[in-house]
Amino acid sequence: MSRGSVEATGMEGNMTEDESAGGSDTLTAKVLKLVDLVGYQDGAVVSREVMKGATGTVSVFAFDRGEGLSEHTAPFDAMVTVLDGEVEVIISGNPHRLSEGETIIMPANEPHALKALTRFKMLLTLIRA
Fold first, then answer.
1. Cα 21 from chain centroid (whole Å)
2. What secondary structure letter does DSSP report for 37?
3. How far apart are CA 112 and CA 92, in angstroms?
4. Comparing C-alpha atoms, which of 53, 69, 50 is closest to residue 11?
5. CB 48 within 8 Å of CB 78
6. CA 28 → CA 22, 24, 37, 49, 114, distances in Å?
7. Cα–Cα–Cα angle for 45, 27, 17, nearest 5°?
8. C-alpha–C-alpha distance, residues 8 and 54, integer Å
9. Which residue, among 113, 18, 125, has the nearest Cα to 70 in the 3D structure?
10. How many CB atoms lie within 10 A of CB 46?
């Protein structure tokens, strides 16, 4: 398991990576509360990579209200789980409103975007297949 950079492509507003809690190597063999791994910042999207491997990544994001990801596609499925707040996820033009505890899978090669309706945090799981 190693720590990598977070790509800001498709991000609206400012993007920062939360280094305050250390790298992902410090997260192994510990009980974690995912929602606490990143903090909110005004006008920004904050991310923290939890795990990275050859077959995928797991990251936690915190979005200020109104921030989001502009429409894009990815060559593999991506799963979003909302940890806090509310978000609108648009997949192929169809809007989906999600709140804490809800999950949606964005299919590979389908255009998708998201916008924070409130401040919100998510777990993003990307599996390369």
1. 17
2. S
3. 6
4. 69
5. no
6. 12, 7, 13, 12, 30
7. 20
8. 20
9. 113
10. 23
Domains along the sequence of the chain with CATH: 14-127 (2.60.120.10)
Q: What does each of the 129 residues of the chain score in pLDDT, given as a tens digit?
A: 333 333 333 344 455 555 444 445 578 899 999 999 999 999 999 999 999 999 999 999 999 999 999 999 999 999 999 999 999 999 999 999 999 999 999 999 999 999 999 999 999 999 987
Q: State both tokens at 98.
A: 């999600």
Residue position matching structure tokens 């060559």:
75
Q: Is the pTM of this model over 0.85?
A: no
